[in-house]
Amino acid sequence: xxxxxxxxxxxxxxxxxxxxxxxxxxxxxxxxxxxxxxxxxxxxxxxxxxxxxxxxxxxxxxxxxxxxxxxxxxxxxxxxxxxxxxxxxxxxxxxxxxxxxxxxxxxxxxxxxxxxxxxxxxxxxxxxxxxxxxxxxxxxxxxxxxxxxxxxxxxxxxxxxxxxxxxxxxxxxxxxxxxxxxxxxxxxxxxxxxxxxxxxxxxxxxxxxxxxxxxxxxxxxxxxxxxxxxxxxxxxxxxxxxxxxxxxxxxxxxxxxxxxxxxxxxxxxxxxxxxxxxxxxxxxxxxxxxxxxxxxxxxxxxxxxxxxxxxxxxxxxxxxxxxxxxxxxxxxxxxxxxxxxxxxxxxxxxxxxxxxxxxxxxxxxxxxxxxxx
Length: 373
Known about the structure:
7-stranded mixed beta sheet, alpha/beta
């Protein structure tokens, strides 16, 4: 789900939703969702209108309906006109919003691409991406937006028609909503590949080197990409900055300490060259969890931490890495406790594969689960 909220009325929330629906509809069927919080349960319009059914429910705490032929100009009609294959309307009392959301998602179905408009829905769901649209230059914020502003993945400034960042910053990748971030991605390709017997970053999947597959997934997501490698000539075809270890043979912590000074951005995402999938939803979850800590490390279903598929703050991690290396340590998690790292539980469906041999690559291609590192 892409969830879009608004700081005020008439800031262009539906205009942005329609633009993104049209963009996504070229790739997959899209379900549009409108959410209305019901204020009364006596069937009387709180605004004094006659025959209005939007803000009042008489018999049930919530109602999910499909907008087959909404009146022209209505938000749900605009979503249909933009290309949504169907549009669902959830009306719910605030105390029944969670139950209404559960019924809504049962109607949407698993794996569906969805664009929803609501502030309060963010209290009961964690979407793939949450955008909050605010009027450019305005400090005003309605109460429903103020309660979720800190949860926004991105604040979009609007004059009602134009947006900053522009709609092209938000897109579908691997069936999930994601965005381009002003952050650095660091691809770790300096390992010895002992188990592979050869440079595993160059193993081919569908005729392309494994590392290229990783980099191609990162290019739309990050403003900067660096490659940690001690054989830059082997990876020159990527056209990216190559950073060798300051002292080769001292493990991934040395790679981190060698590359972080070259990052233009404070937030640095790390990924190994032998991880063929970079789940965009998991990347978004890492950024969302960062908050006031120095890094976020995924934890798999088996309890294993994944410090080489993680998000770090450049400056505190660089200082901690240098101190740990001076103490003779080589593993990335040696930066603890000097750095505050938060764990992020990874659902089984998002488990990270780590391919160390040609046989494991062949097995992964056949769709079988591969053990983590």
